[in-house]
């Protein structure tokens, strides 16, 4: 079977890792980088975003969006930059657009696929790729399983076969809302988990926070029409466990920095912050952890006040 050509827009760590993974599986891959494309292509390494990992010969790096002509285009663009990117980009020829973004767009309240839908052609399928994965694990070829969500069942199966590799296993679902929300909401809980560890509250407290955070994720997702089983899968629980228990998580590191009184790195994308602020602005939702994260991050409450607020909530059945 002839490998499918695949384009990837966005040469951050995850986009680069996907290019390496798919390229090593034999796919001709074109990776678009906003800056420094020629240098990355010449060096065969993205030294800024994913140093130490060599691009295979099947991967070519470009700075010209017009060169993205493959039937599958993976959009490895952060959620908060997705709308702007699509609004200024030339129309893509791809028959399937696959988002890897996580979070809720602050200006519109939309998820990644809804943002893409505002710009896509009528004959373009849109899918969401999400789940527990770190860029370095993908680039090293370590076993990884992800969720691919798409409402078009035939396209979902085609993408599942096209994007799966010996080390990357994809599971499909039609519940795009659930898959998107799992990836967005777990980042909020990860900030809280990082704050718990940064404050020295211990692993027992982190485990309790993760369990109650998962319950909060399920409440929000159900209110949006998502399926409970989706949140219990790779894109919800799986991603939550990975993100909350690893110091490699940007959101966990952000929470730790807040608790320790350090200034987080402004150059690092922290998807969970915008999502927490979006949830906190919706009083009809029961989201005490998201409310606490938003209050802590904006300085509205101190860490001690946040802890006291959560511990003083009324006792109730689990």
From TrEMBL:
Lineage, broadest ranks: Bacteria, Pseudomonadati, Pseudomonadota, Alphaproteobacteria, Rhodobacterales
Major location category of this protein: cytoplasm
Name of this chain's protein: Glycerol-3-phosphate dehydrogenase [NAD(P)+]
MF GO annotations: glycerol-3-phosphate dehydrogenase (NAD+) activity; glycerol-3-phosphate dehydrogenase (NADP+) activity; NAD binding
Record GO biological process: carbohydrate metabolic process; glycerol-3-phosphate biosynthetic process; glycerol-3-phosphate catabolic process; glycerophospholipid metabolic process; phospholipid biosynthetic process
Keyword hit for NADP: yes
Localisation per UniProt entry: Cytoplasm
Amino-acid positions noted as binding NADPH in the UniProt annotation, renumbered to this chain: 14, 34, 102, 135, 250
Glycerol-3-phosphate dehydrogenase NAD-dependent N-terminal domain segment(s): 6-155
Taxonomic superkingdom: Bacteria
Binding site for sn-glycerol 3-phosphate: 102, 131, 133, 186, 239, 249-251
EC numbers for this chain: 1.1.1.94
């Amino acid at each position: 079977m002839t490998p499918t050509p695949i384009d990837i827009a966005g040469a951050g760590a995850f986009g680069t890792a996907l290019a390496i993974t798919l390229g090593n599986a034999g796919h001709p891959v074109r990776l678009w980088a906003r800056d420094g494309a020629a240098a990355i292509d010449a060096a065969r390494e993205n030294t800024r975003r994913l140093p130490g990992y060599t691009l295979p010969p099947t991967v070519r790096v470009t700075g010209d969006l017009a060169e993205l002509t493959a039937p599958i285009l993976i959009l490895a663009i952060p959620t908060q930059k997705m709308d702007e990117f699509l609004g200024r980009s030339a129309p893509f020829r791809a028959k399937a657009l696959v988002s890897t973004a996580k979070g809720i767009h602050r200006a519109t309240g939309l998820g990644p696929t809804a943002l893409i839908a505002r710009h896509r052609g009528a004959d373009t399928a849109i899918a969401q790729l999400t789940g527990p994965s770190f860029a370095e694990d993908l680039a090293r070829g370590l076993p990884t399983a992800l969720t691919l969500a798409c409402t078009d069942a035939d396209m979902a199966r085609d993408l599942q076969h096209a994007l799966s590799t010996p080390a990357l296993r994809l599971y499909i679902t039609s519940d795009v809302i659930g898959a998107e929300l799992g990836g967005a909401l777990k980042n909020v809980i990860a900030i809280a988990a990082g704050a718990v560890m940064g404050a020295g509250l211990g692993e027992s407290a982190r485990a309790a926070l993760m369990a109650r955070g998962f319950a909060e994720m399920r409440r929000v997702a159900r209110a949006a029409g998502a399926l409970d089983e989706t949140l219990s899968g790779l894109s919800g629980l799986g991603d939550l466990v990975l993100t909350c228990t690893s110091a490699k998580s940007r959101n966990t590191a952000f929470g730790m920095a807040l608790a320790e009184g350090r200034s987080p790195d402004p150059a690092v994308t922290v998807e969970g912050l915008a999502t927490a602020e979006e949830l906190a602005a919706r009083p009809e939702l029961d989201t005490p952890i998201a409310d606490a994260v938003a209050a802590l991050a904006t300085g509205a409450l101190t860490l001690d006040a946040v802890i006291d607020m959560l511990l003083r909530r009324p006792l109730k059945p689990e």
